[in-house]
Specification:
Two copies of one chain form a homodimer. Chain A has 247 residues and is of the alpha+beta class. Chain A has eight helices and eleven strands. In chain A, the strands form three sheets. A four-stranded antiparallel β-sheet of chain A has the order 1-8-3-6. A four-stranded antiparallel β-sheet of chain A has the order 2-7-4-5. Chain A has a three-stranded antiparallel β-sheet with strand order 9-11-10. In chain A, strand 10 and strand 11 form a beta hairpin. The longest helix of chain A is centred in the middle third of the chain and has 25 residues. At the A-B interface, strand 4, strand 5, helix 3, helix 5 and helix 8 of A face strand 4, strand 5, helix 3 and helix 5 of B. Chain A binds a DNA duplex (30 and 30 nucleotides) through helix 6.
Chain lengths: 247, 247
DNA sequence: CGTCACTTTGAAAGCTTTCAATAGGAGTGG
DNA sequence: CCACTCCTATTGAAAGCTTTCAAAGTGACG
């Protein structure tokens, strides 16, 4: 498990993950020596609006980070996996609530110490910078998805992104429930369910229980996701749909 | 104009802008001495996918930063105002295309030098960090908007966010066209237009030409935006709409 | 003052949501 | 170990909001 974690963490930072074999420094190095604490599924580690005193590193398990509108509507900003860090911001309050989806193990440290250590280290600093850039890129991908993709494209894009994170053949795990997926993709639970059913009926995927999916036709799924260049697809439509962009 | 710019730039960085009176260091200090270049409306400064060799600082004017799906659908990730910086990332390619909406003046420098200078400066480094955090927060606000708000809430939220950036009474300027607003808010141009018309008919706003709006009833608009706590509103609905969140 | 591009408005269609009911899984207790 | 119960997921039908298609209106600019 630890090796897997290290690899996934590496990929976030190294431009060419395949080229790296020996252990490279990662942000998680700041947390060495801290004891890992365990939280049960459903527990919240931090609450939106609370004073942001601590920074956490996910060692094991998956969390959801979300914000809630006053009337109760929830939007999940992202899912946190091993190697991810929560609570990094220059605001004095947490911007999201982070809740365990599965049982999780995390290590924590005071935010002030975290920043001091990272700031003093010539090797750690670029890693924090890279982490923030990764986060920004993920956020932009998500904005593109929410802004311009339909329900099927959203679900397929999500499945593929999970696949990229944890590529073990064509099998992916979905620790989160359908409601989490819906609140992440800007859909309702029913729509997510319908899309999944439809994909399965077309044999593009097959569900294995509620929390695992077999991506049976990856290339077809990539085409559906909306981000495929359509190498074999119709070039015409792509060129004529919208006149590139207005001046 | 310069004074205005400095103020808006300060707000982005200082936790308590009201407390600062004398010139504080800002990221733009890196660009002093660089000549400002002018670009006409419609011109692109950087292209998504191009090698990211340069970092730009907006001196004057407004730009749009966007990504495009293979079939031509466009999503605007954000609008860039004076004091904003483009091209900062640890990827070697630009992630977005940045196009001038109005005539703009920018200052540029090689990315490598930008990073070297920021990295060497004890005062500049936290400013870059703050900039990234600001960007992350804006992205999360946008994800919440795109994920869970309806058309009217989106448009009103946008108008209010512009108002916060450039509060000059109740008047705001919208240098971008309706299509830009639509591609930023995940709507169509027609829907944006309809919402604007509806708001005007209800006298919550009044449009002044195409590029200026008078926010006539700010508190009502805040209530509509979806983010209002509803101090005077019905507390019941907020509490019962969704059972907080599922375990 | 005419042209062109952008915006507004209308009507119909479509996709997603809402409401409702059934089905399925996981955990608990007998 | 199996039955029961509860929570989550799936499915169906109708409603609703936004989009699409189409046309008229408005403003900027040469």
């Amino acid at each position: 498990m630890n090796a897997e974690v290290a690899i996934s963490s590496l990929r976030q930072v190294a431009p060419f993950p395949g080229l790296l074999r020996e252990p490279a420094p990662t942000l998680r190095d700041v947390f060495v020596g801290k004891v890992a604490e365990t939280h049960a599924a459903g527990e919240a580690l931090i609450f939106e609006g609370d004073v942001a005193g601590q920074v956490f590193e996910v060692v094991t398990g998956v969390l959801r980070a979300f914000r809630i509108l006053p009337d109760g509507r929830r939007a999940i900003m992202g899912f946190l996996y091993a190697g991810d860090v929560i609570g990094v911001s220059h605001y004095d309050r947490y911007l999201v609530t982070a809740e365990a989806i599965t049982e999780v193990k995390v290590r924590r440290m005071p935010r002030s110490r975290f920043f001091a250590e990272v700031n003093d280290s010539q090797t750690l600093r670029p890693l924090l910078f890279a982490l923030l850039c990764e986060g920004m890129t993920a956020a932009q991908d998500q904005m593109l998805l929410l802004c311009r993709k339909n329900a099927e494209e959203r679900v397929v894009s999500f499945l593929l992104s999970v696949h990229e994170k944890s590529a073990v053949g064509a099998m992916i795990e979905l620790p989160m429930g359908r409601l989490d997926m819906a609140d992440y993709l800007g859909l309702t639970i029913e729509t997510v369910s319908r899309v999944m059913t439809s994909l399965a009926r077309r044999e593009l995927i097959s569900t294995v229980g509620r929390h695992a999916v077999n991506l049976r036709k990856l290339s077809a799924l990539r085409r559906i996701s909306g981000e495929d260049e359509g190498a074999d697809g119709d070039f015409e439509r792509a060129a004529t749909r919208r006149a590139v962009w207005p001046q």
